[in-house]
Design a protein that fits this description.
Blueprint: E1 4-6, H1 13-23, H2 32-46, E2 52-58, E3 61-70, H3 78-92, H4 95-118, E4 124-131, H5 140-154, E5 159-165, H6 171-175, E6 179-190, E7 193-205
Parallel strand pairs: 4-5
Antiparallel strand pairs: 1-2, 2-3, 3-4, 5-7, 6-7
Helix pairs in contact: 1-2, 2-3
């Protein structure tokens, strides 16, 4: 079956949660139960933060998602907020979950610092973008990204930004014409090991050419 793009549906949650868990390698620094809860928190949090969604479906299965937030028009449905709260509470029930959640808190703080450093008030945010590793290189990421840009054009949102880091294929955004606005390095201590990561904020204007080549997403 050809690739299909459609709006997010509730029954997509588990498949997308598993893609997130594998993409960000949660099982490498936590137990399977905590890794599942982390992915649940991450996805449910993203689902409180969007006005536009597209899920990529290949052979009947969700293989990627992109979420965009029109900041001025955004409101969060209460069911989405309740699901996020339940996920967070479930994570905090265990000592390991509480410890790992501090990593997310650090990342959130870094993102806020990057946004302040940019000195800009953006009208739109790319809130989530993930594609299954099983179908990268097949144009899935480009199709989702183009759908997001089409939405910003229809809504007359002249600029969009996103957060990313070295755990992701951040080069994709450069291939699509986005500009790295700010970056920051941070040293994490996970399971007794030190790991250094760089965090970025990328942005682009609608007036720029956004048809890149060579992206592997």
């Amino acid at each position: 079956m050809p690739l299909q793009l459609r709006e997010y549906q509730k029954n997509d949650f588990i498949a997308l949660k598993n893609i997130i868990r594998k993409t960000w390698r949660y099982d490498e620094f936590s137990s399977p139960k905590t890794a599942s809860r982390l992915a649940d928190v991450f996805l449910s949090s993203c689902l409180t933060n969007y006005t536009f969604s597209r899920v990529a479906v290949l052979n009947g299965k969700p293989v990627g998602i992109i979420l965009v937030k029109d900041i001025a028009r955004h409101t969060c449905p209460l069911p989405n907020r309740f699901r996020q709260l339940r996920a967070v509470l479930s994570l905090y029930l265990t000592k390991e979950g509480r410890a790992v959640s501090k990593i997310f808190e650090n990342v959130t703080g870094i993102d806020r610092e990057l946004l302040r450093e940019s000195g800009k008030n953006y009208p739109a945010e790319l809130a989530l973008f993930v594609v299954s590793s099983s179908c990268r290189g097949q144009g899935v990421g480009k199709a989702l990204f183009r759908a997001a840009l089409d939405y910003t054009g229809q809504q007359k949102l002249d600029e969009i930004y996103l957060f990313t880091d070295t755990s992701c294929n951040y080069g994709f955004y450069e291939h699509q014409g986005m500009r790295r606005r700010c970056e920051r390095e941070h040293l994490f201590h996970i399971n007794g090991k030190a790991a250094s990561m760089r965090f970025f904020i990328y942005d682009c204007k609608r007036t720029k050419s956004l048809h890149g080549k060579g992206a592997s997403t």
